[in-house]
Write a structure and sequence with these properties.
By secondary structure, this protein is α+β, with helices and mostly antiparallel strands. 31% of the residues lie in helices and 26% in strands. The N terminus is likely disordered.
């Protein structure tokens, strides 16, 4: 790995070093550069005195000027340059990961190695080059990382054409994309060694803080983004036209929202409506909404930026609030995973080491610091006055289901619920990739619990078929997870009392009238005996 020095105009020795490193073009000494803002209204021309990765300092006719590298583009032979060939690891994909999470992940990775970020260089093209040096920045180079910001779709295109070794995505790879990569020798992109889930995120529908609307049903949301509802008065707001803030067709964020709306209330993913404001990034979408009282947009959990998040109501009348526990249990409809994908045939030692850190519990604090939801295990009370108990007591259910609910209520108040929730691939007895990761995370969590702690794996089913058959299915799912846990943990959990049970279709967390609702209802929860004081 070649360490990249800071660009400075100093003496002849420094210039020669820059020429050799490849940052300074051979014909650029004493040549002017022009820095231009994205809207073209601001331009400054002069001799480049310094480039420190995040800012330019130039000597103009009126004096020295410093400008942020993220606000301007540089043109001219004297401009510094850096390319993917300069890095050990190349990454490409969505801004959600590239700008929102990756910088802190690299910082955390460096700290875990006792190293330091030697420098980070960015440019107007949303490219970033970061180098990491051992011994707190005074040792040998550990690795360099070059990232470009685009979209989730482009992440997989970059993996396919091998312009990137790691793809950053805000959605799961499609079957077709995985097939194309497999045919190119990239391996099985669904394998946990290549599909790295690094964080959880919730898409939050946001409006201006002064907007009186507090909640929207998915039916109303579909109407707004489908172009059928264009005035806030139609959803209980002011008599004002709705300013629709959208994302590009290739955005993984838009794919997640569109797929959810298509699955619940629309026949297909709605196209971008005429007149909608297209925001290039989550930050740009939040900026529009916080300055326009009539705007509505959608952003990742970490990008609300002072806007007001809306409560969502599904087709069964269940209210969903985008909090971290609901995201971890996968019970919020607009919840999603953030991924780092890698090819199996080109991944190098530096990339593999970084990816192993990114999915470890050592990265949890970094993920939380970035404003996203980490993959750690959270605990929530199931006391008699909890929202969940109240919902079960007020549910309109038939006598057969009522018996299961009463039995469940008698058990659950003695246990807290862990956020760890297991689901299975559709039509399969195999755990989802998240479920495989949950096994390891849960084992580590339970290792720290006192001897004698009681844990129940509690299975549930959807409402399709006879209740008696669903009861068998629910218990069978719980027993399968228990067996997986015992096989993985061995004697590590010898002091923990673990059992499996099931409650058929009781306590649905989704609507059984849709396939997605039935999918989230087919689950195994983890209950743990309340801590003694």
């Amino acid at each position: 790995m070649q360490k990249r020095p800071i660009w400075k105009k100093q003496n002849l020795t420094s210039v020669i070093a820059l020429l050799c490193a490849g940052i300074l073009p051979a014909d650029s000494w004493a040549q002017d550069v022009t820095l231009t803002s994205s809207d073209g209204t601001v331009a400054a021309t002069g001799e480049l005195l310094e480039f420190e990765g995040n800012s330019y300092r130039i000597n103009t006719a009126t004096g020295e000027v410093s400008l942020s590298a993220s606000d301007v583009s540089c043109s001219g032979a004297g401009c510094p340059s850096f390319e993917a060939a300069d890095a050990d690891v190349t990454l490409a994909g969505t801004d959600v990961v590239a700008q929102g999470l990756l910088p802190l992940l690299l910082e955390g990775y460096a700290a875990s190695k006792g190293a330091a970020l030697d420098e980070t260089m960015v440019d107007k093209g949303n490219r970033m080059l970061t180098s990491i040096v051992g011994d707190e920045g005074f040792g040998d180079p550990i690795g360099s990382f070059f990232a470009t910001t685009s979209s989730s779709r482009n992440a997989f295109q970059a993996l396919l054409n091998k312009s990137s070794g790691v793809g950053m995505s805000a959605r799961r790879i499609s079957t077709r994309e995985a097939e194309l990569l497999a045919a190119d020798g990239a391996g099985d992109m669904f394998d946990p060694s290549q599909e790295n889930i690094v964080a959880l995120d919730s898409l939050v529908m946001i409006v201006h803080p002064d907007n009186p609307v507090q909640e929207l049903s998915f039916q109303q949301l579909g109407g707004i983004y489908g172009g059928f509802i264009t005035n806030w008065a139609d959803v209980g707001g002011n008599d004002a036209p709705i300013t629709l803030v959208e994302r590009s067709e290739t955005s993984g964020t838009r794919t997640e929202l569109g797929s959810t709306l298509a699955g619940q209330v629309l026949e297909q993913v709605p196209p971008v409506q005429p007149g909608a404001i297209i925001a290039a990034t989550n930050a740009a979408a939040a900026s529009v909404v916080t300055t326009d009282p009539n705007a509505i947009g959608y952003v990742g959990y970490a990008y609300q930026r002072g806007a007001k998040g809306l409560t969502l109501i599904n087709e069964c009348g269940m209210r969903q609030i985008p909090d971290s526990f609901s995201a971890r249990t996968e019970e919020y409809a607009l919840q999603r995973f953030l991924y780092l994908y890698n090819r199996a045939d080109t991944v190098n030692e530096v990339a593999r080491d970084f990816l192993e850190f990114a999915v470890s519990d050592d990265a949890d604090a970094v993920v939380a610091k970035a404003g996203f939801i980490d993959l750690g295990v959270a605990r929530r009370s199931q006391s008699s006055d909890s929202q969940r108990v109240r919902s079960l007591l007020n549910a309109d259910i038939d006598p057969t289901e009522a018996a299961a609910v009463q039995q469940m209520l008698g058990q659950m108040i003695d246990y807290d619920r862990l956020s760890t929730t297991f689901r299975f691939d559709t039509g399969s007895a195999n755990l989802t990739p998240r479920g495989v990761l949950n096994i390891e995370r849960l084992t580590k969590y339970l290792e720290d619990q006192p001897a004698g702690t009681q844990v129940q794996f509690v299975g549930f089913a959807d409402s399709v078929g006879k209740s008696s058959n669903n009861q068998v299915l629910s218990v069978g799912r719980a027993e399968r997870v228990l067996a997986e846990m015992q096989a993985f943990a061995g004697d590590r959990l010898a002091g923990i009392d673990m059992v499996a049970t099931g409650y058929s279709e009781a306590a649905p967390v989704g609507c059984n009238i849709s396939e997605n609702g039935r999918r989230v209802n087919r689950r195994v929860e983890v209950w743990i005996s309340k801590a003694t004081t």
